[in-house]
Design brief:
Layout lengths: L2 H4 L31 H8 L2 H7 L4 H14 L4 H25 L3 H8 L2 H34 L3 H7 L2 H12 L1 H26 L3 H7 L5 H4 L1 H14 L2 H10 L9 H36 L11 H12 L2 H34 L5 H23 L1 H30 L2 H4 L6 H30 L1
């Protein structure tokens, strides 16, 4: 086998040749030092993982974490840990696909499948991104309402400004986007660290919560929340995003260069996803220590949690920091969601739109239904819309996970970087498990609506 094939030839094993660069305005725009310590090289690769981690702590995850903690205490921490481990595996595969093949997941689907199949996958992915953006718009609007009293309808409209922020940052360079995302993640983390200190959780209970319990399976109500947590954690657009933004680094296009890039990109995303694990676990721990312990076992909505934190913890800063963390989460998710929208449209359709136009289209798709529902049904309608957005996301997830596992396990496409047998089977188990759990969650949600 030639070295080119062993390293994963760009066009070997694909139905179509690679026709363009992913995110061309920032493609291979960041230098990687050829010499120096491993820390210096790792820091040069660090960044994309934190953009990916944002999707695992977006406002759509908050409701499931709050419900799990308030209803069942610390028991479902093991589910958050399991879902984070699955996310670490899938994101590592997404990064590897981009590094080895020079294609993001959207381009890979276009170059592998027939045009009708690729178009179908594109439509499903656009629906998922619109649903994800909807959750971010609503989350940001709720945060603005809770912190500043801005009506949710006006808050939804204000989120259009986010488009301009993303455009400005990308024009300055991709590192500015990464720096802003990391700063917002740090803000969320510090807010929840303070909340945990104030809530004084039972350390023993927290540690026991990370050990799986048979009650999760035997208790139907607990099982439903557990599946909701799993379903809300892995985001399909993150797989497209990660496979693209790893290509912003100027790693050497050789076997050794790709090996190094895969190693550092995997470390980057894995460490970043442990921060996301901390955020999700923190939300559940705070809900368990504050609400479950005081008998408020029905707290599942963000607004309820905001209003109850201050009186239960004895400080108004508890509610304020909760709102600040929510606002930072919504803003962060906006940055990465709009990037994912550009990657998906350009990757599947191979057409280029001006960045501002693409982001404006993505945002309007989310804002229009949010404005209509808020105007007609008020705040209660936005809560239902948030749930619906998570259902749409769960429907799309398998259509991103299965192609990703299939491509990265294919030796004709990946060369020596194809998944070894143990990883292939593990990835398929995770993919099938996610598909089954999301299908169960969808059925139960629909039954609940009709009931």
């Amino acid at each position: 086998m030639s070295e080119e094939m062993a390293a994963g030839d760009d066009n070997h094993g694909w139905r179509k040749e690679r026709s363009g660069k992913s995110l061309p305005e920032v493609y291979r725009s960041m230098r990687i030092p050829k010499h120096g310590s491993w820390i210096k090289k790792f820091l040069a690769f660090a960044g994309p993982g934190y953009l990916v981690a944002v999707g695992y702590m977006d406002p759509g995850n908050w409701a499931t974490d709050l419900a799990g903690g308030s209803m069942f205490g610390y028991t479902l921490l093991s589910v958050i840990l399991l879902s984070s481990l699955m996310a670490i595996l899938l994101q590592a595969l997404a990064g590897k696909l981009g590094i080895v093949t020079g294609r993001d997941l959207a381009q890979a689907c276009r170059d592998h499948y027939s045009r009708p199949v690729a178009m179908g996958l594109w439509v499903l992915c656009e629906l998922a991104i619109a649903a994800c953006d909807l959750a971010e718009v609503i989350g940001t609007a709720i945060a603005l309402n809770l912190l500043f009293g801005i009506p949710i309808l006006y808050g939804v409209i204000i989120t259009v400004i986010d488009v301009l922020i993303v455009l400005l940052l990308q024009n300055k360079g991709f590192r500015y986007i990464e720096a802003m995302v990391i700063a917002l993640i740090a803000t969320i983390g510090l807010c929840f660290l303070a909340e945990i200190i104030w809530s004084k959780p039972d350390v023993g209970g927290v540690l026991r919560g990370f050990v799986p319990s048979s009650e999760i399976v035997t208790n139907p109500a607990m099982l439903y929340i557990a599946i909701a947590i799993l379903g809300a954690t892995v985001m399909p657009h993150n797989l497209y995003l990660h496979s693209s933004i790893v290509q912003t680094r100027q790693f050497e296009l050789t076997r050794e260069g790709k090996k190094q890039a895969i190693k550092y990109a995997t470390w980057d995303s894995s460490i970043a996803l442990f921060f996301a694990l901390f955020i999700n676990a923190a939300i559940l721990i705070i809900a368990a220590a504050t609400f479950h312990q005081t008998g408020y076992t029905g707290v599942a909505e963000i607004g309820d949690a905001f209003h109850l934190l201050a009186p239960l913890l004895g400080t108004t800063m508890a509610s304020i920091l909760f709102g600040v963390a929510l606002l930072a989460s919504g803003q962060n998710s906006t940055l990465t969601g709009t990037l994912a929208g550009q990657i998906v449209m350009e990757g599947f359709l191979n057409i280029r739109l001006p960045s501002w136009l693409r982001r404006l289209i993505t945002r309007l798709i989310a804002i229009i239904p949010a404005v209509i529902v808020t105007a007609i049904a008020g705040e209660s309608g936005t809560a239902q819309l948030l749930i619906l957005s998570q259902v749409v996301l769960s429907l799309q997830l398998s259509f991103a996970v299965i192609p990703l596992v299939m491509f990265t396990s294919d030796r004709s496409k990946m060369g020596e970087f194809a998944n070894p047998r143990w990883l292939k089977w593990l990835a398929w188990v995770v993919g099938v498990l996610i598909a089954v759990l999301n299908l169960y969650l969808l059925v139960q949600t629909v039954i609940g609506w009709f009931a």
